[in-house]
Each structure stands twice: as structure tokens, then as C-alpha cells.
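Open question from group meeting: does this chain pack into something compact, or does most of it stay loose? Before anyone orders reagents, we agreed to write out a predicted structure and look at it together. Recording both the input and the output here so the notebook holds the full record.
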Amino acid sequence: MSVVARLFTGCLVLVVLAVFAVGATGYGVYRFSDTKPVLGAWSQPLGSARALTAGIDVDNGDVTVADALPAAPVTAADTAIAAEYVAGANTPLTLSWQSVDATGVASLGSAPADPPLAFLHWLQSPERATWDVGLNPTVPVDLTVDIALGSARLDLSGLTISRLGLNIAVGGAEVVLGPATSTDGSSRIRVGVGDVRLDVPDGVPVSIRVTAGAGGVQAGPGFSYDGMSYTNAAWSSNGNAGLELVVEAGTGNVILTALTGVTDPVPSDPGPTGTPVPSPAPASPAPAGWVPALPPVPAAREVGR
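C-alpha cells returned:
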């Protein structure tokens, strides 16, 4: 090998080592830096809105949705949406609200923090976030929840859902269904890797069509299967009308449970595969009305109004 070739090879090796060292150092600072989580709150008034469209998009985290925030007092229903979140100090947040033709449109969520070096974008490691969202129970809600990595707990028993879209790449979902105006089959739950648990209170007519890949379907007492869909007695007594839901699970089980007099969310442990899922003890009905009673809203990126 000539001297020039040796020099070229040596310089090339040094450049590769330098790039690797810079990248490893930058990623270490980005990935393992100690950032304290930030607690925030956000809400919007109902105003003249007669319907609500809510979209929640989270890269890494857990999402809870109900007709009230946890531990919030129940009073007049004059708030369209309220949210409390815990996220990393460097986590970009989306908090957006606008009113379109008497419909309130809300978008909220969290994304990965930007790395210190642009070329490390493919090494992004988002900090885990937690979102608690309360929706107004007096108007129809079109709800979409997208989670890349995490879990969703949706208690829809106090809401009127005009359409439900829940998409989780890796994680799990627990959903308590409720009254619905959607009868066109547009409501859909998709989970790539993880279990899906659906709890149906008394009097809520549902037809659930399930596609399970590597998992299976565990349907408790109260459901009938016609070869295509699982339905309950309320569906039949309602003239085969109600909420039509499609559930797609890639790797995981789909667990269907009929609840009796239950409005509170179910425990998070669905039980081992093949084990019957017991119904929780009946809970007392929640008082009428709703309000989120929030602390002052901290500074956050907000667009539209």
C-alpha cells in the first residue's frame, strides 16, 4: 500500500471515530440528561358549541379520558374540554382550540423532544407523558386518540360518542363504552401489540366486530356471537341498532365484559389469558353535571382560538 493510500485510510478512520464520538456524546447528553417533569393544566369553555371534536396524539405516554378530571368537583357543565398533563420540561406540547360551525375542535398531545444534534433525530427517545382529559358530557363527542407507545383508559360511560377512533402501536387499551349516536360502523379500535379490554354497562347496545391476529377473544357472559360480531341483549332489544365498533388487535387478546350498574373504570389488570374476567362491584351513580375545576394554566404552546 502506498503512503498516500495509508494516509487516506488513516484520515478516514479518524473521521469515522470522531463522528461516532460526537454522536455518542450528544446522544448521551440528550438521552440521560436529568430533566424534571412539568405539571400543567389547560381548558376551554363550551360557549356556543353544540358538538365537540377532540384529538389526542401522544408519542410515549398514558392517556385517560372521562367526563371529568380525576378528583374534580362536580358542578355546572360550562367547559368543553379540560386536561391535566405531566411531561418532560423539553417535551413539545400541542394545545389547540378553535370553533367551527358550532363545533369545538380541540387538539392536544406531546411529541419527542428535539435532540441536541440534528443528525441524531433518528435516535429520538421521547420522555413519557401522562394525560388526563375530561370532556363535556352534554354534547356529542368525536374522539380520536393516537398513541405510539403507551396505554389508554377511556371511561365513556358518561359521554355521548358520535365516533371513536383509538390507535395504539405498542401498549394496551381499557375502554368502558357508553351511549352513542354512531350507527355507521365508523368507530374503531386498533392495537398493534397489547391487549384490548372492553367493558359494556347495562343498557348500552353494542355490536363489536373483532379481528385478532396472534391473540384471541375472551367474551364473558352477556354476549352473543353470530359468526361475525359480538352483540349484547340491549342491541337486540334496540332493533339491532346502537354502537357499531370494529376492534383490530395484532398481538394480544380482546376481552369483552358486561358490567352491571358500573360507571367507574375497571381495574387495570385484565387477568391471565384464558381466565374469566370478573365484573367489579356495582358503583353508585355519579351526580349530575360536570366541571373540571382547574388550577391556573401555565405557559404552553397554544395555537388557534
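Observations to bring back to the group:
The two ends are 69 Å apart (CA to CA).
DSSP finds two helices and 17 strands in the chain.
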